[in-house]
Amino acid sequence: MKISSRKLNIFLLFKLPAAYFTGVRSKYLDNEKCIVTVKHRWINQNPFRSMFWAVQGMAAELTTGALVMQKIRESGKKISMLVANNNASFSKKATGRITFECIEGSKIDVAINTAIQTGEGQTVWLNAKGINNEGVEVSNFNFEWTLKVKS
Asked: Strand 97-102's sheet: what is its strand order?
């Protein structure tokens, strides 16, 4: 069964309620790309009247993580996934609707195939940029995912 945006949003409600209640929502997911949005609201703001950095981080991580989850499911193997490292930069106040997009599905394919072939854990860095309504980048997140085939 394929992971869809709708199923991902239901998953958020039950498994990641902090993301769900702060407004993080999956909008699109295919083999190469995932799009997640979050709107600046009272519940997710910081004292400076913009979106709290951690809410942006949840949306960005979901963008990359949903792609990894989908690719693992497609592989038919039992593979563990974990964020080992991350970094972020913020270039503008995040107000309005922020859209995060990761378009690096092919990098995940390479890492999963290598993990399956070698039996060794692999890492892959995935990027998600946060773009506001005006098309301006407000944040840029990188996540290092570790992938290991379970025995």
From this structure: 25-29, 34-39, 97-102, 122-131, 137-149, 79-90
